Amino acid sequence: MDQVTIYGRPSCGFCVRAVDLCEMKNYSYRFVDMVKEGISKADLAKTIGRPVHTVPQILVGEEYIGGFDSFSQYVRQRDAASVR
Q1: How many structural domains comprise the chain?
Q2: What stretch of H or E contains 64?
Q3: DSSP string, 33-64
Q4: Which residues 6+ apart lie within 8 Å of 24 measured at CB?
Q5: Euclidean distance between the first and final Cα of the chain, in Å?
Q6: 3-state secondary structure of 27
Q7: If residue 79 lies in a helix (H) or strand (E), which one and from where to where?
Q8: Which domain holds residue 53?
Q9: 6: helix, coil or strand?
Q10: Would 8 disulfide with which of 15, 51, 58, 79, CB 3.0-4.6 Å?
Q11: pLDDT tens digits for range 19-41
């Protein structure tokens, strides 16, 4: 799988869960701490090309996935496809 990029905050439970899922699955990932990097939701919206209301915002390679729930579903579908 391409590198996972997680935009979020360390104090965000769903951001932490996204990182944990990447580590559990042994995915290459990069966590971008929006507070530390000075990235606003408006800045991130320009980067991903859609409005941002919540974090995390997750991409796999250049593909926008969404928040944690969407990423979790993406991982489940990927796992199911690899079993077939």
Answers
A1: 1
A2: strand 63-66
A3: EHHHHT--HHHHHHHHTS---SS-EEEETTEE
A4: none
A5: 17
A6: coil
A7: helix 68-83
A8: 4-83
A9: strand
A10: 15
A11: 999 999 999 999 999 999 999 99
